Batch of 4 targets.
Target 1
Amino acid sequence: MGKTALITGITGQDGAYLAEYLIKKGYTVHGIKRRASLFNTDRIDHLYQDPQLDNRNLILHYGDMTDSLNITNIIGDVKPDEIYNLAAQSHVKVSFDTPEYTANVDGLGTLRILEAVRLLGLTEKSRIYQASTSELYGLVQEIPQKETTPFYPRSPYAVAKMYAYWITVNYREAYNMFACNGILFNHESPLRGETFVTRKVTRALSRIALGIQNDIYMGNLSSKRDWGHAKDYIKAMYLILQQDAPDDYVIATGVTTTIRDFITMAFKEIGVTVAFKGDGANETGEIVSIDEAVFGTKIGETYLAPLKKRLGEKIIKVDPKYFRPTEVELLIGDATKARTKLSWEPQYTLETLIKDMMQSDVKEMKKEAYLKEGGYRILNYFE
Ligand code: NAP
Ligand code: F7E
């Protein structure tokens, strides 16, 4: 008999990669998804199986992290060997707009999982992974950040996650539960939500290159992040729950890069060189040259002439509405403990992460560009 895992947040970026990974390992995966007025399972549709089939390895349950009875019922029914608590209102900027909801889902939601396991008498059976975050370090007290670095959260999101971190540690110590924190630094992928900075950039640059978007408005271009690939990071989650004893681990690449440099690298991937001028809210970025051979291969020659006309135009601009009331300026992690104890080693570099994201978004946006062109052609035909 394979193991059974329960993933909260299975419809999110990490949930989707983790579900696929565990199914390949022979797990039966249960996931909690929210009821929504539109389908919200795009990221896991390739794993979906009809409820009428026998021996399914992916089973979805409706639920919400704010509903204790629902969470307790699902855990009681599934009796999972492993619980991966990934569900969260995970957008830092949005947490300033919805602080109470974020605290409820991201903070108390974790308590609901831990209490359900305890009350159901599953403390011996169910191992728990809590999705903790580098945002806990906030106003960093040490560079690089490791497991022993003091926390200094800088957003309602981070404060809620701080509660979740400590309640996980407390239940481990108080009730001898196998409950662990993965303190993951930013991780991205083609499945990343469209409003996080990396995906916002790779989508927008693909659209600008294809002539279906004019410009992009950004927030703080100078903050620095330690970005890895989600595919590498979900393997760490799995490894954390396979150890002999529960513990907390930092998962990071040890490389930090500004948002500005991420944009430069993403444009470079399609043969476009940008230069930035000014600072703060007045900073702008423009295209200074195009490597025609690279652009032709990655985007297509058809799109070269229109983009060349835009050389020297301000394509990247700053809108202060994207600034945060309190910013996390610098994150860089030291994952020595994970590398040594878990033998965790990331396969992707920032360059290969960007390549993966740009390839995927160019492919996706080309469909939109073709439709638009096709649409114009049809319109012209009738005019
Ligand atoms: P994500 O793409 O935003 O996914 C979040 C998931 O949580 C989605 O499935 C979402 O459902 C679900 N969710 C949100 N509110 C919920 C609620 N009230 N009840 C039930 N489910 C709810 O996040 P991610 O990037 O995969 O991150 C996974 C976890 O790791 C999160 O806890 C995040 O805070 C944490 N984390 C992320 C990073 C990172 O860089 N990605 C780094 C450190 C920690 P819908 O699909 O219906 O919205
Ligand atoms: O911002 C700056 C922004 O929203 C990164 C979540 O997964 O990772 C994520 O949180 C940086 C910040 O991610 C824009 O000010 C500039 O300094 O992509 P982000 P995040 O806030 O680091 C951690 C580890 C988590 O746990 C979270 O769940 O980029 N930035 N301009 C911008 N950010 C956004 N979103 N949009 C901009 O236009």
Target 2
Amino acid sequence: MRRFFSILLCIAMIGCMAGCSGIRATEPSDNEAFVIGFSQVGSESDWRVANTRSMTATFEGDPEYELIMENARQQQENQFTAVRKFILEGVDFIIIAPTVEEGWDTVLAEIKDAGIPVIIMDRSVAVENEDLYLTNIGSDFLHQGNLAVEWLESEIPSDKNIKILHLQGTIGATAQIQRTRALESAVAKHANWEISSQLYGDFTEAKAYEVMTEYLKENKDIDVLYSENDNMTFGAMRAFEEAGITYGNGGQVKIITFDATREALQYCHDGKINLCVECNPLFGPRVKELIEKYRKGEPIPKHVYVDESAYTTQSITQDFVDSREY
Ligand code: GYE
């Protein structure tokens, strides 16, 4: 089917020449591999890099499959372009890791009209019609946030007032929405908890370092850092050091981070991070299994969540850190 669409694509390209810049015709493969178009968010974090690696490693080397990945550099518009290109190329399957939840109705309807099945991976999409996609495989981000606040409840006596600095990821992404929701609802329930500020770190180390450095010039009264991913935490740690603020076990600021990558777990083991909430990026094999079920006509659940937990300095060993795959 792909060869036929590649010919169509060539005709379309000749038809619009200069006006259609950016469209790339992938070479039709000699075999009739099952072609998957994958629109990835970007490469903003170690989590994302591990996720990309898991996807490519799973399909690479399997002659039955061909995975075409497009990196959206964290822009939803780039995802729309990628998806439309996949449709034009006549791929057999599409996987989308959506940047943000909103705004997907039109493009998902276009995919459906083209008769291509879609898996939404990692974050979710907010569409009225759930039939627009086959399944959503990802994390329970609210559960992750709740693990973090439960830990904080166990750490903070109810008569102690605390100021929480909240570093937020890409606004509108499920991981941001749900992790924020868990914190905000917990703060609403605890009169002694206060969010002193919400800073936008876009899930990147560089952005977090920049906003934290600026913030710490005027504000040093922080008891807890609630950072919505590890890379922002690393940026914040650097800013704390430069501002002379101590953190981790025995320090001024308790640090809560999400993802639990190997580097963050090492900091946690070494007492520099207090809590790592796990978010597993290794979706490749699970996605492949779902696609295989789909191809055999087997039923597929609408939502697939992965099991995740949280780690403290006391609960992890060096062996555990070393064995971390991401
Ligand atoms: O926590 C962060 C990444 O959506 C789960 O995106 C993902 C988040 C992850 O950039 O590191």
Target 3
Amino acid sequence: MNALSREQTKTSRRISMVLRHRPESAGLTLDANGWVPVADLLAALGLTRAQLDAIVENNDKSRFAVARRDDGTDWIRASQGHSRRVAIDLDLPPADPPAILYHGTPAANAESIRRDGLRPRSRHHVHLSKDLPTALAVGRRRSSDVAVFEIDTAAMVTAGHVFHLSDNGVWLTSTVPPGYLSLKRTNP
Ligand code: HQG
């Protein structure tokens, strides 16, 4: 994987915006599972197939998935992170999570999370990380002052909570009630 250039990063962010949050801003409609024809996305954003492929292949979190259908057409979607305002269902099967997962967030959110648990807010799911470094990186997107929670996923599974694993390795669930959360570290 090569690092994206500044121009490619900008285009990648635009693709994320279109595929996760505002398809209509590019004149696109996602299908029920969040896919659009690659040809339509290229036309809408003025990209060549080679430009898109470079971004898909080198995206730091493999955010986009491309799949070929039986009729030979290629379709693309964001693997996770959609806004609730975009009415799609990723249609991922339930998956068995590791016994512990992590969630990184600005430390300013910690008190409210301890009280109310983790909520998906504007997205379809709560997003959980497989390890501490990943959770720290997620929290640092928004603040240098990060809190990381450890989630007792084993107890959640026992209680009937359902988990999904996105194509790019992010664990998804509906909510995490406060009883399954413990503050792992703050201000790392
Ligand atoms: C917080 C990135 C206070 C939550 C990442 C988070 C991820 C609460 C924020 C993906 C709360 C929502 C998603 C409560 C939740 N009180 N704050 N009760 N419940 N929050 O961006 O997990 O780079 O929707 O802690 O890697 O930060 O975009 O979720 O801080 O996978 O591909 O509310 O986005 O991927 O923020 O990030 P987000 P997230 P990409």
Target 4
Amino acid sequence: MIIQIADIARYVGQDVTLRGWLYDKTGKGKLQFLQVRDGSGVIQAVAFQKDLPEATFEMIKGLSQESSVLVRGRVRADERASGIPGGFELGISHLEVVQRAEEYPITPKEHGIEFLMDQRHLWLRSRRQWAILRIRATVVRTIRSWLDDHGYLLVDTPILSPLAGENSTDLFEVDYFGEPAYLAQTGQLYNEANMMAFGKVYCFGPTFRAERSKTRRHLIEFWMVEPEMAFFSLEDLMDMEAQFVSAIVQAVLEKHRTELDILERDTSKLESVLPPFARISYDDAVERLIKVHAQTEDPELKAQLAISWGQDFGSPHETALAEQFDKPVFVYHYPSAVKAFYMQPVEGRPEVCRSVDLLAPEGYGEITGGSERIHDAELLGEKVKEIGINPENYRWYLELRRFGSVPHAGFGLGVERTLSWICGLKHVRETIPYPRMLNRLYP
Ligand code: 4AD
Ligand code: MG
């Protein structure tokens, strides 16, 4: 019977066939220990010379790493066995090679990051990458299921469009049959039209930023989920975000203890991620940062933490703020000048806007960004002119404010930054199967 390693517990005492790859092999004389992986798990398969034809045993002894194989044998329960799932072993009775792998470039020894990035198509087979990308699948699934279950409708938005969703500086321009078009920085503007048709909507797909940023938080292509809600205030938005983000974290804790163990993630910091999350204003945040700055002795960090009212936060600021809380923290009412054109000014204080960023703990920085949107046609028309793209391309967007405009709000959550935080990774590059970065388009 052909089975998956993930289901191995059901077959103790039975003869089964596994189809997979040789992950690793150790041996001493008459005994060979093969780590066989099939994508669903890893198991130790033991070849005992006396149980196998001479030729088969010799072939096993010479088997190369990542050779593809069919392995038949009896499943044994053994508490000490360290596979995934742990506690099982296979006594090999037959082994067939599908393809004998050439010398595999990624060996169990340490490799440099650029080398591994060049080998990304093979590196995906490693245990850590396996763990990360399985958690990613759960993050994506939970995003969809939570929104679907809470009355949000998935409405897709285009990747190619004639306008800039966020700004005109980080745009990828393509030639659309002689007209300029841009890869989506966000689905938000179309989301706002969809929201007026369906009430609560979301779009979820890849987004693109031609940003010349080379940090551990930036990708050129990343996945973003963007909910947009009619009649939502900034306060409603923060309530909803806290529920949503908590649900994602708790789903990962529930399903992925094994993967989090592989990543050596301290899960106690994730357990506490439950609503509510603290909310501080930008003004308050600046005051807190000025205090932190005054108390910082390390000259390099002190220089990075310098801040005055009106400036946007950099990573060191976000980290310092988040350190004051054990859960994600909302920072609201940023200066209008550092935020996108579509954000609603605060009444009586237009120098700040009805925006909110959610900062993750442990130095992971901004994982969501959102706001109330300008719902006044005239004001939005003024702002659109400042973007630097033909305002005619925004005509439909401005029309939304003329046919039953309502207060509304929405946000975007970056999958990779969120995953990086949940997995406790140093860099977002491992959170997406094929990262696109400033200096990387291969593989
Ligand atoms: O703050 P951003 O730019 O917001 C928007 O695009 C809004 N239109 C969303 C909305 O209101 N519908 O991006 C939202 C999130 C960030 O908080 C971050 O998690 C992620 O997207 N993000 C990136 N992730 C990786 N690499 C980049 N270069 C990113 N830029 C933004
Ligand atoms: Mg942002």
